Amino acid sequence: MTITIDGGAGITFPDAVQQTNGMTMTGGAPRYYAARAWANINGISGATIRAQGNVASVDYLATGRYRINFATAMQDANYALVATAGYSSSLEQYVDVRIYGTPTASSFTVMVTVQSGGSPTWVDAQYLNIMIFR
User: Fold this and answer.
1) Contact at 8 Å (CB) between 59 and 69?
2) Which of 50, 73, 20 is nearest to 130 (CA)?
3) How far apart are CA 124 and CA 112, in angstroms?
4) Contact, 6 vs 106, CB < 8 A?
5) pLDDT at 108 over 60
6) Is the pLDDT of residue 131 over 80?
7) How many angstroms separate the Cα of 35 from the Cα of each of 104, 118, 127, 132?
8) Burial level of 130, CB count in 10 A (0-12/13-18/19+)?
9) What residues pair up with 40 in beta bridges, in sequence order?
């Protein structure tokens, strides 16, 4: 399996599909899809970005609620969000991350909760990981 990198032609993968840059494919099926944005966030008592791609900032709105702002906006709000969260606790609890409100081309808000007993509780995530595909 050979991957060829050519300054003029781009990258050619073993299946002979050529990728001219990180987001555009010149052919092939199925196509390769790259994340348009991603971030690893420390959400304890605020929001600090550990690492990111195309994420300008994260706003800490309240316990368990974060607005992620893109460095370069998407063409619309029809993107797919994949998110995971880890909550630091001595108890094993179900952690849930989901979209909160209406996403826009420039940002979206997520909420993080744990299921403890009868109802969900908002919590700050020690590890909040997001990936955006479009």
Assistant:
1) yes
2) 50
3) 7
4) no
5) yes
6) yes
7) 17, 36, 19, 6
8) buried
9) 51, 129
Say if strands 18-19 and 65-70 run parallel, antiparallel, or are unpaired: unpaired
Confidence of residue 91 (pLDDT cuts 50, 70, 90): low
DSSP lists the bridge partners of residue 38 as 53, 131
Using an 8 Å Cβ cutoff, are 12 and 6 in contact?
yes
Q: What is the DSSP letter of 25?
A: B
- Residue 125's Cβ-count burial label (10 Å; 0-12, 13-18, 19+) is buried
Closest-CA residue to 128 (of 82, 90, 89): 82
Top pLDDT among 43 and 1 is at: 43
88 is written with which tokens? 């630091």
Q: Which amino acid appears at position 12 of this protein?
A: T
Beta bridge partners of 96: 113
| CA distances, 54 to each of 11, 50, 91, 97, 101 (Å) | 22, 13, 34, 20, 21
Considering only residues 126 and 89, tell me which one the structure prediction assigns the higher pLDDT.
126
